[in-house]
Specification:
The chain is an alpha/beta fold and about 240 residues long. The chain has 11 helices and 9 strands. The strands form 2 sheets. The protein has a 6-stranded parallel sheet, with helices on both faces. Bound molecules: adenosine-5-diphosphoribose (APR).
Length: about 240
Amino acid sequence: MEVVDVVLKAKHLTALTGAGVSAESGVPTFRGKDGLWNKYRPEELATPEAFARNPEIVWEWYKWRMKIVFNAKPNQAHYAFAELERMGILKCLITQNVDDLHERAGSKRVLHLHGSLKVVRCTGCKKEFEVNEPPEKTLCECGSLLRPGVVWFGENLPEKILRDAIFELSLSDAIIVAGTSAVVQPAASLPYIVKRNGGIVIEVNPDVTPLTEIADISVREKAGKFMKELVDEIKLRLSSKTP
Ligand code: APR
C-alpha cells in the first residue's frame, strides 16, 4: 500500500504536524540532538510557575523564539500540505507548532493545539493581540502582564480547538502524522482516534517514534522531501487520469 494510493482514496484526510515540519525552515525542534530541551529546562521557561517566578526570563526566551519564527520561511513540507488542502484532498491540518508557517504557505484550515507565537494575551483582562514581531512592551493597558499566546506544560489546550480536532479525526479515514516525536499528550493520542476507527495512519519522520508501531505506513524521511514528492506524484496521477 503506497502513501499516494491511500491519500487519493481517502474521503477525509487529516494531518497532525510537529516541530520537525518546521525544522527545515531553521526553527529548532524540542527533542532530538539539537532540541531546545537539551539546552533549556522547560520547567524554567514553559510553565505558568516559571512565568510567575520570572516573567522577564520567560519573555526573553519567547522573544528570541519569535524572532526566529517570524524571520523563518515556509519550507516544502508546509507548501505541500497547503497544496493538498487547495486540491481538496486534505480536509484539516492539526498542528502542535506555534509558528505560522503553515498559514504563510497557504494552509487555511489549521488548528493550533498549543497556541501561537503570533498571539500575545493579557493575564488580567485576557485581551489578545496579534503580533508580527516580539512585543516592545509586556504590560497591557489594564496594567497586567502580557504573556505569549502559547500553551505551557501543565495548562489545558484551548477547549474549542481540541474539540474541533477530535471531531475532524472522528471523520478521518486517513491521517498523515509528520515531524512529531509523539510523546506529548493529548496530541500524541490523537492519531489513535483514526486508527481505532479503522483509518490509516501514515507517519513521516526520519526517526522511529512511539507512533511507529501502530502506523500502517512509516516513512523514514524528512517531511520536506517526502511531502513534495507526494504532491508531485498525486499531480502526475491526476493529470494522467483527466481525459
Ligand atoms: N522532517 C520530519 N520530521 C523531522 C524532521 C524533518 N525534517 N526533523 C526532525 N524531525 C522529527 C524528529 O525526529 C522528532 O521526532 O520531528 C520530531 C520533533 O519532535 P519534538 O522536537 O519533540 O517536537 P514535537 O513532537 O512537535 O513536540 C511536541 O512538545 O515541547 C512541547 O509544546 C511543545 O508542541 C511541542 C510538543
